[in-house]
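Troubleshooting: if your tokenizer reports a length mismatch, compare your output against this known-good record of 389 residues.
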Amino acid sequence: MPPEEFDPFSQAIMLEPYEHYRWLRETAPVYNVPNTDIWAVSRYADADYVLRTHGVFSSTGGVGPEWEPHPMLSMYDPPEHTRLRRLVAARFTPKFVATLAERMTASAERLMVPLVEAGGGDFVTELAEPMTATLMADVLGIPEERRGDFRRWSTGILDTLSSRHDPVAAKEAEATRVALLAYLRELIAQRQTRPPEGDIISLLLQAHEREALTPKEVLAFCVLLLVAGYETSTNAVANFLNALARHPAAFEALRSDPALVPSAVEEGLRYDSADQAFFRNTLSDTKIADVLVPARSKVMVLLGSGNRDDGKFPNADVFDVRRNASDHLAFGSGVHYCLGASLARQQLSIVIRSLVRHAASISPAGPGERVVTVITRGFRTLPLHVDAA
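Known-good structure output:
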């Protein structure tokens, strides 16, 4: 990479971004990507400022690099965002998340034990993906007889993130999206006509403080939960397992002292964030760290870079499961802080506890295949070797 240029859409940079982030933080912390209206913000303090200042840095123009607003929670600003988030948060509570713990633990054990007994395998396709798909199905209350279809649709809809420039793949992804949306509409209609159950769709359809979400708003939240929850959770598990496999001392520390799991979860989320960037849209000319950013610009908030900022996290490139990293940016910041953060943390904790209970060691068994997008970071495949405890 030339020392004066950063291209966030470069495959090489998306695959290995962290040295490029360091160059930005040290050289051009508010950087105008050449020939675009995109401004990349790489330091923790500046990223946190942008995320918290929604009156200037809006989400309504879309949270990706294109100007594509959609009617969903993550792309609204207050006051509409405030209303919707209040109604969703009233149901998506820690108590609701806690009801899923037993099922998550059973799912992790069911998937982990055969992997350990086999000496390893692909920890994405054999653990992270099926566990997350089961979790999303549990959250939404998908009947057992439709879970095969649901997992196929959930996986397929994520292909829309990487198929824009492949006409055949884009057509297949669109067909999958249409099928999933049709099924979710059918499911929502069914839940409207029967007594409430414990799933999130039933809870969202109930009135709270005399106000209920409309079926259209419930559908938009379900789509957001799938796109954000399914992909981000799968990638977070894979990224964490990859970090443990490459840092045997960290894995041994967790085996010796399971009380480190909570801090290890936060460190894993910080060290290799599943969401590397979100975009905001300037409503007026504004300054970030004394750099003038024009109105109607896209501000690329580099979460992954902020989480590697030595000014916030000393020796940030070191994976330290004893670090207090709870104020990382992996779940964003401000009014759009991830509603599913507690669910993601719980899933990661359960996976780690299952792994250290059954495995004596974990190590790479091949390079794996990275997910390559401008927003997300994870693995399509992650071959790991494990020795049974």
